Amino acid sequence: MFQRILVPVDLSEPAICANVLSVAEGQAKAHGAELHVLTVVPNYTMSLVGSFFPEGHLKTATDAARKALGDMLAARGSELAIKGHVAAGTIYEEIMRAADKLSCDLIVIAAHRPELKDYLLGPNAARVVRHAKQSVFVVRNRD
Questions:
Q1: pLDDT, tens digit (0-9, with 9 covering 90-100), for 92-107
Q2: Read out DSSP for the chain?
Q3: Which residue of 61, 109, 117, 124 has the smallest Cβ count within 10 Å?
Q4: What percent of the chain clears pLDDT 70, i.e. is strictly above it?
Q5: SS3 category, 11
């Protein structure tokens, strides 16, 4: 049923990454699907915010994310051939862009229990669920 699965991960949350990747690997095995793992480095392009970061910060952060993602995937020792991707930009927009670009038909995304601030701002998972063209499987974090 699914041929390509995208799993966005936040590398600063290793336990959540492990949980959502386990679910996604199960889905990939069950459907014989390709598994793509994406991490997004937020870019700070607003001149006010961007001025606080040194020149080349985004490239340095992206390179570090690429290495950290590769290390995390290698440490998993999965029997699947998992492809890692790093993007920079607005998190939910980059998730949907990658899903479209990679022709994914399922996004497996982690979500935590909503807090008050999430009702006002909307978390990335909720935005992906509302706007993605693909089916979205939400893995609730076990807090």
A1: 999 999 999 999 999 9
A2: --SEEEEE--TT-HHHHHHHHHHHHHHHHHHT-EEEEEEEEPP--SHHHHTTS-TTHHHHHHHHHHHHHHHHHHHHT-SS-EEEEEEES-HHHHHHHHHHHTT-SEEEEEEPPP-HHHHHH--HHHHHHHH-SSEEEEEE---
A3: 117
A4: 84
A5: coil
Cα separation, 143 vs 135, in Å, equals: 25
Distance CA 1, CA 67 (A): 32
Cβ atoms of 111 and 140 closer than 8 Å:
yes
3 state SS of 46 = coil
* Helices 14-31, 57-76: crossing angle, 10 deg rounding: 60
3-class SS of residue 89:
coil
- Give residue 111's identity as a one-letter amino acid code: A
Taking the C-alpha atoms of residue 9 and residue 69, their distance in angstroms, rounded to an integer, is: 9
Alpha-carbon distance 87 to 52, whole Å? 21
**Residue whose pair of structure tokens reads 């008050």 in the numeric block:** 116
Cα of 122 vs its chain's centroid, Å = 16
